[in-house]
């Protein structure tokens, strides 16, 4: 469990203001990105040293054109990521969100979590009704089919690249690639949740990938108090009411512990 003492003096001062506000919120919207899984050992996209994009051509590995050109190579890369992710566990940040969701449920409130992550860690941590904006790396669907046809394929490593459906057709990862639209129903649901929130948190995302990055801004426009948790400044920072410039595995447990002290 993270210690509040590890937080900077600035962050402790922010928390002192934020905790009473957050403890009053009954409709919370949480939006997460790759940073929330960084402390679980999963590299973020834009991390210059360890980021996946530093080593690979993103368009060839995460686009339908790249897949059509070389499905075996794309699947080799996804299989490698699946193997990395299978060794990773949720961190205290993931667990704190689950804890807060449970606390709010008991208070007739609600916490909705929309993630850009495809790594399944929020679900493994026990968060319910997870909104996965960019799909899930453990799901596949036949090439050319809709999101609704996705199913889980947990073999790790895979026995062949690309894996095949029972009818022999090629399967693709059920993730949103460059140039592809998000699942409209999933995206609309996320916007509805953002619009109804009285408190919104943007955690571990560079706030650059649209349309998902619009969610915290929309929550703010509809009256939510906006919190950002990220060690770096982002496109969203100036619009946030409270900014915790900290790793999420440190800041989230401290925030939720503070809320529990008031509500719990
Ligand atoms: N874990 C995953 O599933 C995973 C991993 C890599 C990329 N992605 C995909 O990356 C795309 C890019 O968007 P993004 O904004 O999510 O990622 P990003 O790589 O663009 O940004 C990561 C953000 O996390 C911040 N960060 C780094 N360490 C952190 C920590 N310990 N605590 C909190 N924040 C931290 C960084 O400062 C940065 O702003 C998304 O489409 C997503 O699907 C997902």
Polypeptide structure, described:
The structure is a single chain. The chain has 264 residues and is α/β, with parallel strands linked by helices. It has two domains: 1-40 and 90-134 and 181-264, Rossmann fold; 43-87 and 138-175, SIR2/SIRT2 'Small Domain' (2-Layer Sandwich), CATH 3.30.1600.10. It contains ten helices and nine strands. The strands form two sheets. The protein has a six-stranded parallel β-sheet with strand order 3-2-1-7-8-9, with helices on both faces. Helix 9 links the parallel strand 7 (199-203) and strand 8. Helix 1 packs across helix 10, helix 6 packs parallel to helix 10 and helix 8 (184-196) packs parallel to helix 9. The longest helix is centred in the first third of the chain and has 16 residues, at 9-24. The chain starts with 8 loop residues before the first helix and ends with a helix. Bound molecules: nicotinamide-adenine-dinucleotide. Nicotinamide-adenine-dinucleotide is lined by residues 33-39, 42, 44-46, 116-119, 134, 204-206, 208-209, 229-232, 234, 247-248. Residues 33-39, 42, 44-46, 116-119, 134, 204-206, 208-209, 229-232, 234, 247-248 line the site of nicotinamide-adenine-dinucleotide.
């Amino acid at each position: 469990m993270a210690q509040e003492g590890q937080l900077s003096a600035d962050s402790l001062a922010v928390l002192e203001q934020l905790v009473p506000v957050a403890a009053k919120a009954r409709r919370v919207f949480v939006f997460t990105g790759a940073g929330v899984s960084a402390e679980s050992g999963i590299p973020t996209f834009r991390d210059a040293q360890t980021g996946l994009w530093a080593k690979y051509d993103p368009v060839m590995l995460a686009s339908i054109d790249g897949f059509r050109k070389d499905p075996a190579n794309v699947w080799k890369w996804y299989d490698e990521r699946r193997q990395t992710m299978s060794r990773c566990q949720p961190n205290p940040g993931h667990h704190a969100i689950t804890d807060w969701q449970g606390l709010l449920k008991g208070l007739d409130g609600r916490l909705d979590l929309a993630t850009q992550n495809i790594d399944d860690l929020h679900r493994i941590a026990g968060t319910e009704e997870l909104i996965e904006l960019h799909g899930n790396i453990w799901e596949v669907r036949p090439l050319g089919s809709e999101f609704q046809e996705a199913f889980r394929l947990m073999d790790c490593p895979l026995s062949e690249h690309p894996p095949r459906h029972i009818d022999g057709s090629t399967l693709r990862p059920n993730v949103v690639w460059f140039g592809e639209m998000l699942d409209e129903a999933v995206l609309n649901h996320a916007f509805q949740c953002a619009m109804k929130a009285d408190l919104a948190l943007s955690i571990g995302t560079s706030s650059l990938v649209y349309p998902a990055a619009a969610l915290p801004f929309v929550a703010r426009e509809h009256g939510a108090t906006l919190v950002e948790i990220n060690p770096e400044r982002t496109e969203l920072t100036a619009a946030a009411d409270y900014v915790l410039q900290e790793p999420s595995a440190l800041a989230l447990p401290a925030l939720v512990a503070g809320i529990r002290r008031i509500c719990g």
